[in-house]
Write a sequence for this structure.
């Protein structure tokens, strides 16, 4: 599989530089918005914004956890 040419609009290098040759969107388009964004930020963190991208991924993962695995409300003793 040849490496795609640099195209900053349709195929930015921070999404196409993975050694597998797989572009990030090829994977993320199969997931919902929050999980897709988390994957996107994890994949690109070393070639774009480092820790900031990992913090963004964590934010989206925390949103998924809050929605899909909510903490039961504490029962009040009356």
């Amino acid at each position: 599989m040849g490496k795609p040419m640099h195209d900053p609009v349709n195929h930015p290098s921070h999404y196409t530089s993975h050694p597998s040759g797989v572009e990030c969107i090829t994977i993320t388009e199969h997931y919902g918005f929050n999980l897709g964004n988390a994957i996107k930020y994890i994949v690109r963190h070393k070639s774009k914004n480092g820790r900031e991208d990992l913090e963004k991924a964590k934010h989206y993962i925390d949103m998924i956890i809050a929605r899909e695995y909510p903490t039961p409300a504490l029962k009040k003793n009356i």
Observations:
- The longest helix spans residues 51-68.
- The CA atoms of residues 44 and 50 lie 8 Å apart.
- The chain has four helices and no strands.
- Helices lie at 13-16, 24-28, 33-44, 51-68.
